[in-house]
Amino acid sequence: MPYDHGVASRLRTAVMRAGPQGLVEERKMFGGVALLLDGSIAWGVLRSDLVIRVTDTAAALGRPHARPFDFTGRPSRGLVYVAPPGYAEAADLDAWVALGIAGARAPIARSDRLRARGPRESGRARDEAAGRRSRVVAAAAPREPGAREEYDPPRGGFGPRA
Question: In this structure, which of 44, 71, 78, 156 has its CB flanked by the most CB atoms within 10 Å?
């Protein structure tokens, strides 16, 4: 998927005009180009669409010419595509660049499902809490402190043949 180099040039100019505090890097990603702010994707160009990291996906999708970032077939939270009419004017492009700065600076939120579940517990702890006995598939043989195992290299496959 080639990307529009003219759009990428306009985006670079708008980012430098905004003057974000931090390191801005450019990397080829997803068949397009991405601009990272301090290591986080903030903006990008795929074909002729902008890709913008946002803090509030629903609010960004309410803006004209924005649509979900569904590169993998499933919408990605925190990223949106912007069609060319949505950034045709310099003021519109500057507004999207500002949203990208805020999106890259925002902490990554854990999903509500993970937050509700809390920390994971091991299978053994879960079994014991349910009153079930855990199965031990294989137990290691006890070793004396300081004992060393002998290394038996695998036979065949690698290295010179003897």
Answer: 44
In a domain, 69, yes or no: yes
Closest CA to 42 of 96, 117, 83, 109: 96
Q: CA of 125: how far to CAs of 46, 115, 130, 138, in Å?
A: 47, 20, 9, 18
Indicate the range of 13-17, 65-69, 96-100, 123-127 predicted with least confidence: 123-127
The least confident of 59-68, 90-99, 112-121 is 112-121
Q: Is residue 147 included in any domain, yes or no?
A: no
Domain limits for position 89: 5-112
User: Number of folded domains in the chain?
Assistant: 1
**How far out from the chain centre does Cα 3 lie?**
20
In the predicted structure, residue 56 carries a pLDDT above the cut 70: yes
Integer Cα distance of 79 and 115 in angstroms = 21
Q: What are phi and psi of 30, to 5 degrees?
A: 55, 25
Tell me the torsion sign for CA atoms 1, 73, 120, 125. Answer: negative
Which residue is it, tokens 């529009």?
4
Cα 66 from chain centre: 20
